[in-house]
Design goal:
single chain, 154 residues, mainly alpha, 3 strands, 59% helix, 6% strand, globular
Length: 154
């Protein structure tokens, strides 16, 4: 999808170089807007199933409702705050640790939502000729680079 000849996230002593093309930055900005719109639908939207999984395997509706009541506001506000942080740092060439963590959360949320919409899982082979699956692959690669950069600083 986006020619990748070098790493997009490079750790530099507690800071992280962000090497995204203008096209990638535009894409991430658009996807963040889409994520905000979806988050407004709330946890019952089937596209958000992987962002708000059931906490109880026994399908106990009472326990599940209590879990949602206790966690929903924090989960939703945390995702929106991370998206705000990414958007605020989108044009930067260097990110702080906190900014990179926000990127990790937002890219992961985008990937989970798209994966749900495509009904893919980690074992599926992606058809990179399909734009949606290529985007899913791109987000997975970006997330991998973010995590590797974070781990490289430990």
């Amino acid at each position: 999808m986006f020619g990748r000849s070098r790493r997009r996230i490079v750790a530099r002593r507690g800071r992280y170089e962000l090497r995204l093309s203008d096209e990638e930055r535009t894409l991430v900005r658009r996807l963040l807007g889409d994520l905000r719109t979806l988050l407004a639908f709330g946890p019952d939207d089937p596209r958000l199933r992987r962002l708000y999984p059931d906490a109880y395997a026994d399908d106990d509706p009472e326990h599940q409702a209590e879990y949602r009541r206790l966690t929903l506001e924090d989960l939703q506000s945390g995702r929106l705050a991370a998206a705000d942080d990414v958007e605020a740092s989108l044009d930067a060439d260097v990110l702080t640790t906190d900014q990179l963590t926000a990127w990790m959360h937002s890219v992961n949320a985008l990937r989970l939502v798209l994966g749900t919409m495509l009904d893919v899982n980690e074992d599926d082979h992606l058809d990179l000729d399909d734009p949606s699956q290529a985007l899913y692959g791109y987000l997975g690669g970006l997330l991998e680079e973010i995590v590797e950069a974070q781990l490289g600083e430990l």
